[in-house]
Amino acid sequence: MDFVEANGVGLRCELTGAGERTLVLVHEMGGSLESWDDVTPRFAKSRRVLRYDTRGAGLSQKVRGELTLDAMVDDIAALLDAYGIAGKVALAGIAVGGAIALHFAARHPKRTSAVVVGSPATGIAAERRVPALERLAKIEAAGMAFAVEDSMQNGYAPELRSDLKRFERFRTRWLGNDPSSYATIWRMLAAAEMQSELARLSVPVLVIGGSLDRVRPAAMAEGTAKSIPGARYIELRTGHYMSVQTPDLVFDCIDDFLRSVAA
């Protein structure tokens, strides 16, 4: 595990695996690089994997004030430069991590070979913004415990809790988030407008929808896929935190797709 100061912020990160190709993994809101613990080792022999805590998450530097997707993308570019990774990389992201991965592809098409996104959070519908921001204010005031039960009920469906130790570990890690940073990242998402750039993407994209995702239902993920030229779509029996809940399915989807497009 490394701590790297990149793009003016301290980031916790890890580069593992071997091979000429690199995959960058971007976790969900409220997650950390541990969200990829059961996916990352499976790539060990086929490619390098760079995963990290986004700014404001995990053990990376916390954030206050305004945050933009541009800043999140610049963090990835700076990390790649810090590790001396040149040429194109593939990216995979879950939820807001998917938005970051897609935005990277839009801003850096010459550095992107392909993108896989699960339940991509590319914005918030206008009618949901006011109640969402009101909820965030309560999280900042009361802490993460205020929202944990709703977040787990909608994002980590009871049908996916057969491994109770896995669920409890994730739930407890989620509680460890810095409430102000979490709210800052949410506000970044609320301000995001990605439709026009999605329509201009030219790299291969796979969108994964979760049939048990009650945060961003599969129909929303499919809608995102339809807005990206040539994007593929697949629906899995998984939820919002899919890299934690169903790592085998997620690995297979990422690996199969990247092999199919030689990325």
Automatic annotation (TrEMBL):
The entry's keywords: Hydrolase
Domain (Serine aminopeptidase S33) ranges: 21-229
GO cellular component, one term: membrane
Any matching Pfam family: Hydrolase_4
GO terms of molecular function: hydrolase activity
InterPro entries membership: AB_hydrolase_1, AB_hydrolase_fold, AB_hydrolase_sf, Hydrolase_4
Protein name, per record: 3-oxoadipate enol-lactonase
